[in-house]
Amino acid sequence: MRWFTVILIILVALVVGMYALTVANVIDPGAFIVSKLEKWESTKAYVETYRLGLQDEETLAKRQAELETLALELDKRREALAEQEAALAKKAKDLENQEARISTNLAKLNQQEVNKEKAISEKKALQAEAVLLSEMETGNILAILENMPTNKQAKLLAYMDPDTIRNVLSSMEPEKAASILPQVSLAQIGGE
Known about the structure:
Layout: H1 2-23, H2 29-39, H3 44-134, H4 138-145, H5 150-158, H6 162-171, H7 174-188
């Protein structure tokens, strides 16, 4: 039994020594065993298969690392793309708002142009009416003006020559002439 204990202690010491040398990266027991097994004819085919498996594992590990790197790069690109899409969406929204403001301003300008053309047409019509009325006698002018609103009477009188205005106002009742005279003066200087 003594010899058994001595042999057991020697084996334990060998195992501990190999473990310590393996941890310290002094020896590689796996490579040592594989190189010894490769020399035997009966285990040679198995060792070749084992080495091919190791190569495949290394290749797979490399591919896995490459895929992980590509996945990280893809995630970064997706984030950048999402940021660009958000920026483009914001710009599109800004452009839509600008387009709406421009459309509103254009509509206002068109309306102002229509109103201006309408005012010019009304002015021309009043001038034409004033010319026609100026050629009539004062009594007829008064009879026609009586059937019109006061502001239109003032505008028509404003387009007549000063002599016709004097004749028409002097033929009116004084209260009526006094109320219409400021409106005529205002229309002559361009007011309403």
